[in-house]
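Dear Dr. V.,

Thank you for agreeing to look over these. As mentioned in my earlier message, I'm a first-year student in the group and I'm still getting used to reading structure tokens, so any feedback on how I've presented them would be very welcome. I ran two proteins. I've put each sequence directly above its structure. The first is here:
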Amino acid sequence: MEQKLQATNHKVQCSKFKVQSKKSSMLKKEVIGQQEVWNRLMEMVQENRIPHALMFCGPEGCGKLAMALAFASYLLGDSPMLNKWEHPDLHFTYPTIKTSDMGSDHTPVSDDFIKEWREMLLKDGPYVLIGEWMQKMGKSDADLNKQAIITAEESDALAKKLIMMSSQGGYKISLIWLPERMNQQSANKILKLLEEPPRQTLFLLVSEQPELLLETIRSRTQRIDFKKIATEDIEQALIERRALEPDMAHRIARIANGNWNAALEELNAGNEKRQHLDMFIMLMRLAYMRNIHDLKKWSEVVSTFGREKQKRMLDYFMHMLRESFMYNFRQAELSYMTQEEENFARNFARFINEANIIDISNLFEESKRFIGQNANPKIVFFDLALKIIVLLIRK
């Protein structure tokens, strides 16, 4: 009798998921490619073996958050509340900053920015960058110079939400975006939740740098790795969603190199990436000329950027370094540069070789780490500029 009852419950659960499939297929359309991952998630559902914590990992722009939202929506069923991301059993956690209008005794939590978060998902879609999120939260230029983190108070607030019973009788889902930005206290409290998860709770962690998480947190989640989006999937999405001609879609898809955000940047004529290219060109030209006076001015200019933007700029510098090195091989299929980038690389690439590429790359990585540790940006970038002078002449 007990076995029959268990079998019946299992059938009811599977049937429930089948009913939800209409809603899930609609939301799944927001995800570009990644069919393999979706199939794996559906297998978990069908076999009734969804773990209590999943961690989606992969490079920027591959659709981890889009997939987490689609999967959460699938599990929560067809509800009009999901149209505005206001479902009472879906709890969002994300990095926040203390804005200039907050009281001195207030520590920010996700609910302080839930209106901005929902508006961003509805207006801009589920392919979110931390820089864009900072812009949504910031109330002043000073706010944008701060680093976004997940606070211990946020972990406390989440624990209080999850201890409550599900309002709809199904899953409670905790979606944590960029958990690597938890401070130590927050990480320890989240670890406790993962060790003793509240009943009927699923944690969906969406991480770009899982290596920065506590090993004990990583060990308590089932990791799902995302690959870059296939070029043909990005190409098709550009044609269908942005009405691009096939030739243009193909070119942008190749440059994007599996990153939907990069593809969108290429469509934006005034994008940040072009500013990063200008700063890279200026740095390399001034370093080649050994113009220390103007390099000092350069470092003062970039030190005024917010820390998150400085880190994105250094990521871009690493991209240009790699692409310039590959340009030396003169094989078009190895190049992932825009026409502007290639125009600069045509003369610059010869200065990047096996004798200096590793050290320059390490220099950019080290500078990014220093910025993340709140080092003085003027000192960091001027030191970087002086070292580039020496490295560029290495043969």
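The second protein is here, in the same arrangement:
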Amino acid sequence: MAGAPARDGGAGGDGGGESLRRVAVASFIGTAIEFYDFYIYGTAAALVLNQAFFPTLDPVNATLASFSTYAVAFAARPLGSVVFGHFGDRVGRKSVLVASLLLMGLSTALVGLLPGYDSWGVWAPLLLIGLRFLQGIGLGGEWGGAALLAVEHAPRRRRGLYAAFPQLGPSVGFFAATGVFWLLSSALDDAAFRSWGWRVPFLLSFLLVGVGLFVRLRISETPVFAKVMDTHDTSRVPAVDVLRRHPRELLLGAGGMIVAYGLFYTATTYCLAYATGTLGVSRNTMLGLSLVACLFLAAGTWLAATRSDGVGRRRLVLAGGGLAALWGLVLFPLLDTGRPVLIALAIGGALFCMGVVYGPMGAYLPELFGATVRYSGASLAYNLGGVLGGAVAPLVATRLQAEFGSASVGWYVTAMAVVSVVCVLALPETRERELL
């Protein structure tokens, strides 16, 4: 039956003739650019976009408006999952990944050329929203294809290892984005940074897209999808087949992703705005501490992804969710001390928990779906989790803090973790599944 997760076929065999290095680079490059693109916007939204595009609003509402444009791309991502997933499940993983990278990267880069409110009035924020929507469409197809590129090239007992590389994208993209902003913030005075300096990270996306295309065009189609094409067993409308045959896996997989997204965007975008705006921590200090926190994210991601081949995906995701539920209760007490070491510990601990959840998901979500609908199913689950966890987290956190204080934001993080744990408890272990 098309779309069912069969267990009697190959799982990538010997990696489809591709070396681990080539698969790793090709799958990693897109997710690194994805999170670079998303985090430069998140950082700019926290630091400057409220004044550049919403200067007529009061500070709290301007910040909310800035974060709302941030959320637009998340809302567009499920649509991108349907569009790119359709062609990824019918035409192939490789060609769709090239298209998603182009749309994602160019939409991001054009933000750097967009005039502000002072020049174009209301058209400036409207065009910003439009570019964010296009970026979200491209992003909706990126992660699923990158994860499948790794998983479907991997031998069965090394899928967690191969999938670790696209899952390292958030760590590297976050580090690169924060590093660029930190350098600019250090080198420029405040007026120059707010006038043109914040645009530089966006314009660098032009270069990154070129590098990504060079790498992506050199990789072959995955051996799993090549076998699907040989049997002429493609789904006519993959998204419909996912909803009809895998609604449980889709919804529970999305629920499992909520805490990863919620942790990332609460501990980075929101905490950056909160610490610089409410606690009075300098912008340079917070960007530097965020660079340190990236190391915790990378460590948690690599440790959990590679260990999942031995102990299972589900067990590690549950462990990460449990840790996150506890960490939500100490995140803001540590942050509110205003002490740099404890702030680094607060953010780094949250990102380590996120990494433990996120690392195994690179193999776990694809393994939940059959080969004929895998691109659509994994992408939709991943991006629906992003809407529920990432799009609303900075908005909810900003409002909670304003109404009830910082402790309420920590409880919100804990609630997201509990939801994810409950969802994953209802899912099976998948590491022994075949991919055809």
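From my reading of the second output: DSSP finds 19 helices and no strands in the chain. The longest helix spans residues 59-90. Does that match how you would interpret it?

Kind regards,
E.
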